[in-house]
Structures are given as C-alpha cells and as structure tokens.
Amino acid sequence: MATPEGSRSPSVELVSYIRTAPAPFNRPGDFIIRTAQDTRYHVTLAILSFASSYFRDLPDIERNEDNEVVLAVPESDAVVETLLRLIYPMPDPVFCDLDDLTDAYVAAKKYKLDSATQSLQKMLIRFVESDPLRVYALARRFDLDEEANIAARRACLSATQAWPQCEEFNHISAAQYHDLLQFHKRRGQAAAHLVKIKPLCEPCWVCGKKWSKPWKKCAARLLVEAPSSERMFTPDLLGELALDPSPEWLPYAAQGLLC
C-alpha cells in the first residue's frame, strides 16, 4: 500500500549521526573540525595556528549548543586526516592513489599549511615511474618546475601515440602540454642523432660494419618515438632485425653472426 506523498515509512527513515575520528583525534580538544561526512576531529587550535596562518587568523567562531567550537569544512575524512597527520608529530600518511595526494595538496594550499604542502610535494615524485604524465600535469598545475622536468624525462620512455588520456591535463594550458610534446620531440631527435655518429662501435672481425647499418636505422626510429627507450639494446630487437629481408643484413643474421 502506497504511503501519502510527503510521508515515509519508519522502516526506511534515515537517521543523521555524527561520527568521531580515530585516535588521536577522538580525544577532547579546544577545537573541532567537522568534515563533509560529519566526522568530528578533535584538535588543539594552538597546533593548527602554529602550522598555518589560516587558523592563526581565524575569526571568532560561534560555539554550538554543547559549548564546542566547530569548524565545518567541505573536505572529506581522508583529506582532513591526511593534513592532520602531516601537522601532528606522528607517522606520515602513505598514499596508494595519486588522486588522494592531489586532493590533500589542494587542501594544504587552501589552508596555507606550508610544511604539509612541502611534504606532499616530495611524495608526488614517488608516482613519477608509474604515472609520469599525471605527475607532469599536476606539477605544472601547481607550478612545481623541478617535479615537472623529472616527469617529462620519464614520459620520454614511451611514444606519444601510446600516452593515455589523463584527466589532469584538463587543469593545465595547451601551451604547457605543447611544451611536453616539444621536449619529447627534441630529445628524440638528439638521441637519434647520437646513434648516427661514427664510429658507433669497433668493426667486428667477422662481419665488419654491415650489421650496424640496419641496427642504426632501427634504433634511430625507436629513439625518435621514445627518446629514453632502452629497447635498442635488448635481444628482441636483434630478433626483429634477423627477420629483416634487406640483402646486407640477412646473410649475417642467418649465420647467427650478431656483433
């Protein structure tokens, strides 16, 4: 049987409640931070004031019915706890996801937590091996030149055609993305030029220089595509060249005379 419009069955009535943060932020303090999930973090305002001018210059906040000073913030539990762990004398948080670090960094800048911002900046570079493009975009977004340069070099390990689409690129300018493409192109051209410098290696007493010509050609192509790639030094490239039908390479490949 349907209930009248505007009424709800008691069996599905939602009850609002306030959650308490984990230790040590569940102990009584003189200041409470309430997150978007209505979790209360009990903190000491003096510690926050020492860490940030935002809290030091905070205007008087009215007390609630329980005579508590409560600051409601739009950030999530994860972000607030991350920042507090960077402020309080306790182990730093460990990030497994770059999105979590990004959210924390944005909040740290918002609340002028300089020390926390610097700590998060150092943690950002840990993701450069797994997500160089995302790290580059974040570094450019936050004006972190050193981190952006490191990420750009790491991005040269793969061809631009293989780069995934990253949401972080929506927060940087077209000029900054173009800079990354040009950096990749310049490094590729420079690396390919090095391959062509003679003598690349000493002639082999068995097959002379003939094997190196197709290798140089293939290596130059690979380096233009991915300037920091090491594939030209791997056995699979020699296997690829062994299948090359060019007349000057095939006889030596068939004999297994790979220099």
UniProtKB/TrEMBL annotation:
- Domain BTB: start-end pairs: 29-88
- CDD domains, per database record: BTB_POZ_ZBTB_KLHL-like
Q: What is this protein called?
A: BTB domain-containing protein
From which organism does this entry originate?
A: Phlebiopsis gigantea (strain 11061_1 CR5-6) (White-rot fungus)
